[in-house]
């Protein structure tokens, strides 16, 4: 092994066959996307180079999502395909190690080894700091399952990304500041897969933000399952919430833009609302899921707020930042949901007029209180409600996009567009915006006028 490691260091691209390669496939939310990068960085130190083709992989890592049944089952169909890949490689005398990380790993643990014996490693999101050690054990032939709820910081032993790796990823980046959830909505697996709420300390967050900026990042999105539940001791010795943290990060030299996601209505405090009022660097966009519009269903979901609490909150946020675009998540067909309850959801949507939204059919998750209920809504009813809700949401989304035409905005140029000579960035409201520009301008912020809407994007001209 030592010899191989030495070869890695001296190998050039053409001798790349000697390098160990890791393929990471990410499912689920942005937290998983962030974790995949941190894991790839850590594996880089163990001599693994990242590859985009699974058939070249010496180590194949699936970073999984357990939020709905479909998401969780995808893992097993993927593992079926991977079995054939592994067998092909074995035929060529090459080994392929298989790891399952993420929320399915945490929820199902050993069960994954039983259902898919080709898996060598199961590692839950709380234990990524043990990844280098786990990989070493797997390489020694052990089957490893790591699914403790660790009390240590999951990133403690993981190296921070190197400048080169950051630069390769582009000018926007995620930064996890908070993990886990104590809210226990009755439909949701997250409190079980991600453990209880934990906030990373200010010093760690600032140091990572500075590092990202030094690597060329201009926009950072702070991540957390309930990102606005973040709290910690501030530089001034006082207890800070997310609003104070954003205010502090806005002072990081070279950082042009800040975003954060996902927020819970109950944790939207005054300081955070004031941050939207005061900070130019904080983009006027807020993902604030409400899930349903009926108080009866909100109560059954254990959301611990009413539809009116939510609408009142939206009014306060819009008063502080009138230009803010809202986004939300919805579940239709939670057990016991009547046509009347569902109409309350439509009425709430009509009042808020979301710029963007995500909506799902309720999926019963093992171990959650919702799954125990006996009054499940029929699948056809769920489908029909989802269709009606999505029609309304997409109508509002198009209307919002249309309302952007003719407006002048600052656009951060992020990456090449589909056609040569085009670049794509995101509007302050997170829509993709396409503009003619040279690739040397990636990372620049330019002034543009939005000229028309496309299928899922906006077009703009430089002014
Ligand atoms: N922490 C975030 C949501 C995380 S999960 C919050 O509290 O808003 C992302 C979205 O998946 C949720 O907002 C919800 O709309 C959806 N979701 C979660 N569990 C689900 C389930 N069992 N069935 C269908 N959708 C679900
Ligand atoms: Fe899930 Fe609710 Fe926690 Fe969001 S707040 S992660 S929906 S339990
Ligand atoms: Fe899925 Fe886990 Fe994220 S269940 S949505 S990957 S927190």
TrEMBL record:
Residues 20-140 form the MTTase N-terminal domain. It is an enzyme of class 2 (transferase). Its cofactor is [4Fe-4S] cluster. [4Fe-4S] cluster 1 binds at residues 29, 65, 103. Its EC number is 2.8.4.3. Binds 2 [4Fe-4S] clusters. One cluster is coordinated with 3 cysteines and an exchangeable S-adenosyl-L-methionine. GO terms for cellular component: cytosol. GO terms for molecular function: 4 iron, 4 sulfur cluster binding; metal ion binding; tRNA-2-methylthio-N(6)-dimethylallyladenosine(37) synthase activity. It is found in: Cytoplasm. Pfam families: Radical_SAM, TRAM, UPF0004. Residues 402-463 form the TRAM domain. Residues 167-399 form the Radical SAM core domain. Keywords: 4Fe-4S, Cytoplasm, Iron, Iron-sulfur, Metal-binding, S-adenosyl-L-methionine, Transferase, tRNA processing. It catalyses: N(6)-dimethylallyladenosine(37) in tRNA + (sulfur carrier)-SH + AH2 + 2 S-adenosyl-L-methionine = 2-methylsulfanyl-N(6)-dimethylallyladenosine(37) in tRNA + (sulfur carrier)-H + 5'-deoxyadenosine + L-methionine + A + S-adenosyl-L-homocysteine + 2 H(+); 2-thio-N(6)-dimethylallyladenosine(37) in tRNA + S-adenosyl-L-methionine = 2-methylsulfanyl-N(6)-dimethylallyladenosine(37) in tRNA + S-adenosyl-L-homocysteine + H(+); N(6)-dimethylallyladenosine(37) in tRNA + (sulfur carrier)-SH + AH2 + S-adenosyl-L-methionine = 2-thio-N(6)-dimethylallyladenosine(37) in tRNA + (sulfur carrier)-H + 5'-deoxyadenosine + L-methionine + A + H(+). SUPFAM superfamilies: Radical SAM enzymes (SSF102114). [4Fe-4S] cluster 2 binds at residues 181, 185, 188. Monomer. Belongs to the methylthiotransferase family. MiaB subfamily. Catalyzes the methylthiolation of N6-(dimethylallyl)adenosine (i(6)A), leading to the formation of 2-methylthio-N6-(dimethylallyl)adenosine (ms(2)i(6)A) at position 37 in tRNAs that read codons beginning with uridine. This is tRNA-2-methylthio-N(6)-dimethylallyladenosine synthase. The gene is miaB.
């Amino acid at each position: 092994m030592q010899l191989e490691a030495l070869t890695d260091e001296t190998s050039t691209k053409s001798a790349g066959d000697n390098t160990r390669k890791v393929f990471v496939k990410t499912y689920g939310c942005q937290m998983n996307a962030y974790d995949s990068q941190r894991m790839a960085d850590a594996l880089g130190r163990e001599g693994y180079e990242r590859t985009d083709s699974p058939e070249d992989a010496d180590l194949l890592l699936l970073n999984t999502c357990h939020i709905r049944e479909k998401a969780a089952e995808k893992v097993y169909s993927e593992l079926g395909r991977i079995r054939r890949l592994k067998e092909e490689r074995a035929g060529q005398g090459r080994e392929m190690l298989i790891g399952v990380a993420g929320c399915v790993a945490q929820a199902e643990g050993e069960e994954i080894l039983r259902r898919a014996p080709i898996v060598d490693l199961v590692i839950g999101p709380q234990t990524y700091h043990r990844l280098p050690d786990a990989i070493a054990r797997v390489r020694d032939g052990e089957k490893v399952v790591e699914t403790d709820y660790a009390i240590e910081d999951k990133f403690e032993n993981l190296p921070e990304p190197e400048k080169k790796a950051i630069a390769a990823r582009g000018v926007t980046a995620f930064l996890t500041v908070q993990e886990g959830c104590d809210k226990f909505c009755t439909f949701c697996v997250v409190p079980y897969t991600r453990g209880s709420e934990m906030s990373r300390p200010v010093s760690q967050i600032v140091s990572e933000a500075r590092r990202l900026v030094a690597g060329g990042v201009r926009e950072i999105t702070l991540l957390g399952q309930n990102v606005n539940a973040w709290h910690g001791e501030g530089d001034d010795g006082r207890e800070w919430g997310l609003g104070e943290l954003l205010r502090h990060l806005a002072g990081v030299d070279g950082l042009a833009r800040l975003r954060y996601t996902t927020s819970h209505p109950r944790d939207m405090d005054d300081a955070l609302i004031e941050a939207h009022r005061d900070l130019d660097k904080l983009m006027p966009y807020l993902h604030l899921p409400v899930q349903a519009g009926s108080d009866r269903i909100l109560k059954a979901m254990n959301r611990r707020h009413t539809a009116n609490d939510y609408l009142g909150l939206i009014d306060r946020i819009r008063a502080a930042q009138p230009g803010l675009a809202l986004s939300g998540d919805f579940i239709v067909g939670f057990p016991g949901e009547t046509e009347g309850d569902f109409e309350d959801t439509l009425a709430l949507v009509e009042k808020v007029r979301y710029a963007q939204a995500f909506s799902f059919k309720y999926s019963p998750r093992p171990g959650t209180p919702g799954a125990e209920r006996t009054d499940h809504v029929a699948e056809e009813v769920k489908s029909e409600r989802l269709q009606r809700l999505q029609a309304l949401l997409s109508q509002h989304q198009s209307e919002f996009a249309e309302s952007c035409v003719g407006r002048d905005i600052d656009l951060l140029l992020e990456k090449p567009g589909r056609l040569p000579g085009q670049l794509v960035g995101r509007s302050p409201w997170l829509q993709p915006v396409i503009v003619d520009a040279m690739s040397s301008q990636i990372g620049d912020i330019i002034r543009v006028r939005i000229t028309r809407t496309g299928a899922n994007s906006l077009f703009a001209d430089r002014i």
